[in-house]
Amino acid sequence: MKKTAFIIPVVVLATVTALSSVFIVDERESALVLQFGQVKSVKEEPGLAFKIPLIQEVVRYDDRILSRDIDPLEVTPSDDRRLVVDAFARYRIADVVRFRQAVGTGGIATAETRLDSLLRSTMREVMGSVSSNDILSTDRAALMLRIRNSAIAEASNLGLEIVDVRLKRTDLPDQNLEATFARMRAEREREAADEIARGEEAAQRVRAQADRTVVELVSDAQREAEIARGQADAERNRVFAEAFGADPEFFEFYRSLNAYKKALSGGNTSMVLSPDSEFFNYLKQADRP
Question: For 157, phi and psi rounded to 5 degrees?
């Protein structure tokens, strides 16, 4: 019984010791085996790994690509037009040993703080060398690549690899927005006024051409009407002349009847004539038809 009582604690202690010496490395992470704070080995392959119990410890770091949003940053391009830039970076821990040496026990939080400072400084430097139009343009791939390449060397000192840097939003500061909008409104109003002036000028040309066309058409119509009227008068006079020449007596009779008709037209016509007036001489002559 005494031997059994001694063996059981030994077996339990051995089992606990064996289990504490084994750890699993996930495929999404890398592990450092530390002994009294010093790196003894690096475990990057997934699977089982071993360490010395109680003496060595395991620190795990994410091996995936991580994202970091950078707080909005105010930059001054080469044309002194201040802009607020909002960006983010994608990075990964490329060298876990250097990463541990650079950040110590601070881990990812400390690394991201230092990465923020590095990227903000790089963005100010790169964007300060270009114009605001280059920053505000839709084709900013070259600019973002410059920022990434400028930060790669310093990031490697932290054991980090910067995969990509992206500009999410680029705006004017709030205090400059109203002035910019007012300038844009003034520019659009000026363009609208120019368009209106050009439209009025074109309308005046169209109206002038239409008035000229109307005058020409009316003039041509009046000329043709006068010609037709003259031809009609000539034809009438010709007919009268032929009638007068063919039968002067009848022509005189016809002309007298027309004179009576015009003089006596209307229901309230009154004439006061002396009996021997020449107006009715034609009717007094009994020998005329």
Answer: -65, -20
Q: Which of 74, 33, 72 is nearest to 51 (CA)?
A: 33
CATH topology of domain 66-171: Tetrahydropterin Synthase; Chain A (3.30.479)
Weakest mean pLDDT among 88-102, 151-165, 258-272, 273-287: 273-287
Q: Distance between alpha carbon 83 and the CA centroid of its chain, in Å? A: 20
pLDDT, tens only, 168-182: 887 777 666 566 677
Give just the sign of the alpha carbon dihedral 87, 88, 94, 95.
positive
Alpha-carbon distance of 5 to 233, in angstroms, equals 155
**Residues contacting residue 235 through CB under 8 Å, at least 6 positions apart:** none
Which residue's structure tokens are 């007036």? 277
- DSSP assignment letter at 86: E
Q: Which helix (H) or strand (E) holds 83?
A: strand 83-93
Question: Among candidates 111, 61, 112, 63, which has minimal Cα distance to 88?
Answer: 112
8 A C-beta contact, residue 132 and residue 82: no
Task: List the Cα angle 167/170/176 in 5-degree steps.
Answer: 160
Please compute Rg for the chain using Cα positions. Answer: 56
pTM: 0.55
| CA–centroid distance for 185 within its chain | 15
Alpha-carbon distance of 72 to 94, in angstroms, equals 27
Distance, CA of 76 to chain centre: 25
Task: Please list, in sequence order, all residues whose beta carbon lies within 8 angstroms of the beta carbon of residue 152, skipping any fewer than 6 positions away.
Answer: 161, 162
Domain parsing of the chain, residue ranges: 2-62, 66-171, 177-246, 249-284
Question: CA 166, CA 91: separation in Å to the nearest integer?
Answer: 12
- How far are the Cα atoms of 235, 249, 265, 273 from residue 253, in angstroms, in the given order? 21, 6, 18, 21
